[in-house]
Amino acid sequence: MSLAAALDAGYPDVLTVYAALAPSERVGAASLALSYGRPSLAARWAIDAGHHDPLTLAAALLRLGRATDALDLLEAQPDAARTAVLRARARWQLGQRADQADVARILARREGDTPALMAAVTLAGEQALGAPYAALRTLAEGLRVSEQLGQPADAHLLSVLAHAQLKLGGSKGRRTAARALERSVARSPARVLALLALRRDSEALAEARDGEIHPVWWEALQSGRPEPDSASSASSREG
Questions:
Q1: Where are the domains of the chain?
Q2: The pLDDT of residue 236 is above 50
């Protein structure tokens, strides 16, 4: 069985599959684990000897709600768009400095890093959900970039867009949420948010449990802002 298949299926012996890989085959394993919604494995493999991957480690820690740990790790990393996006997400989870998403957007534009730009725009859209029209204007940048590149819109961005549209009433938000769900991958924040937008809460929570996604990823949809230090408290409990 391949590592990807084991991760997707939740194969109980995935560690055995990983251990059987040659060192050169383990490169990228942490990122692969995160893409399949296995952040604990991603965090473990990101610090494997010879394959240290600090950005994937930080992303995995954020998925788990360990924002303080992620931020501590990121402070030592060079300033770049992807680092800035992760720092912004960590600070947002801790209830700090919403303006950092805009810093990440500027860096992503300057570097021409489309994935980082999408992540930064999505985060900025989340932060603006308390003012739905502002959120729509923010998220429109990501939609324009996708259209210019001839690429499908990012699933996470669409799921946040759906919540902004739902706040304004009408059926458009549900249609957008259905598109986000179709494009999302299992055990991802995008899928959880899309299911919540469709009011399929039990399915959303099941996806979150399976993907080890901390509630900080969706609690701002209700309050407009994570509770200060909620992720920090989770980090101390899990540490």
A1: 1-52, 59-127, 131-218
A2: no
